[in-house]
Amino acid sequence: MISTPPPSGNLVITVCSTKGGVGKTTLAANLGGLLADLGQQVLLIDADIQPTLSSFYGLSDHAPAGYRRCFRTGTSKTASVAPTSAAI
């Protein structure tokens, strides 16, 4: 699903399916990499119980809090983001 960009110019693309093994993570990783190569700032969020998105891009550091903790407890959003060694 691709949303209409809000006035801020940000675009949210959601890749989802209830079926496993259909390539959601691979699609998200490749799309994020392509957009980063085109000069866009990209934030990829893997909400899967078994997150594997980080295997596509080497994490240079691990975030002290995951996205679940961020939304449940109000933890700082920056505590839930880990930079990668890639330009993404």
UniProtKB/TrEMBL annotation:
Highest taxon listed in the record's lineage: Bacteria
Domain CobQ/CobB/MinD/ParA nucleotide binding: 13-60
Pfam families in alphabetical order: CbiA
Alphabetical list of PANTHER family matching this protein: COBYRINIC ACID AC-DIAMIDE SYNTHASE, P-LOOP CONTAINING NUCLEOSIDE TRIPHOSPHATE HYDROLASE
Official protein name in the record: ParA family protein
Protein's organism: Banduia mediterranea
Lineage: Bacteria, Pseudomonadati, Pseudomonadota, Gammaproteobacteria, Nevskiales
